[in-house]
Specification:
The protein is mostly helical. The protein has 10 helices and no strands. It has 3 domains: about 55 residues, no CATH class; about 70 residues, no CATH class; about 70 residues. InterPro entries: Phage_Mu_Gp16. It comes from Sphingomonas gilva. It holds the Pfam family GemA.
Length: about 240
């Protein structure tokens, strides 16, 4: 009997790039569901809205790609290094900006992303906040607005044009910090906000404080906040009359 040498091909698993890619997309979709904090109903709603199907397993590769793109738009970020990257959608950006502003106001001690995550976890009852779910983000922003309002930073914007809202809020924050500097005796009592902006921030605003741009107001806010953290040297009698 003649023995034939086996080629080894029969029992060897064949690598199929298309199948591997499909499995990768399915895994990514399920990771995104968890990262975004989507309930099963919300998850199915996204699938149906994008493809008309309620099961990722029943989708074509093209449909899976569309679902991944939509979940990415909603804030999903792949964890290439094992750490969730902060989302960059408008709600997350606003929450971060408010957190930093509250630190400048002295309401928040730690302005870091980690401190904000811890605060969000307490407020929203989630184990880990990945800056992804925009519905959670809106709830968090409302909590931050309430903190700002209690600290005297007016958040009411009824009747304000959308394009002017950021500028108005920055100016109000600067005004609140200016009032605190005066109340705490950290600047001469006769200074107005324009003089304080010039002396502390190097910002000259012609035509009145109401004409301050968002960029100028932001520089003033940073300088006023720094002045509260590191008070000026005692003011001399000569400086008081300047």
């Amino acid at each position: 009997m003649t023995l034939r040498r086996s080629s080894g091909q029969a029992g060897k698993a064949q690598f199929n790039p298309a199948q591997q890619r499909r499995r990768g997309m399915l895994a990514k979709i399920h990771i995104a569901q968890k990262q975004l904090g989507l309930t099963e109903d919300d998850y199915r709603a996204v699938l149906i809205r994008v493809t008309g199907l309620d099961s990722a397993g029943a989708m074509s590769d093209a449909e899976l790609e569309r679902v991944v793109a939509e979940l990415t738009r909603l804030g999903f970020r792949a964890k290439a290094d094992g750490k969730a990257k902060p989302a960059m959608h408008p709600v997350a950006l606003k929450a971060r900006a408010m957190w930093i502003s509250l630190h400048q106001l002295g309401v928040v001690e730690n302005p870091s992303e980690q401190a904000l995550e811890a605060f969000a976890a307490r407020q929203l009852g989630v184990v880990k906040w990945h800056w992804a779910n925009q519905a959670w983000g809106y709830k968090l922003i409302e909590a931050l607005k309430a903190m700002a309002q209690r600290a005297g930073w007016d958040q009411h914007l009824e009747g304000v044009a959308p394009a002017a809202k950021a500028r108005i809020l920055k100016r109000r924050l600067a005004e609140r910090l200016f009032a605190m500097l005066k109340h705490e005796g950290l600047i001469p009592h006769h200074w107005d906000i324009l003089l304080a902006a010039e002396r502390l921030a190097g910002v000259e605003i012609g035509g009145g404080w109401w004409q301050a741009s968002a960029e100028d107001a932001d520089r003033v806010v940073q300088a006023f906040a720094q002045a509260r953290r590191a008070p000026m040297k005692p003011v001399s009698a000569l400086e008081l009359v300047r």
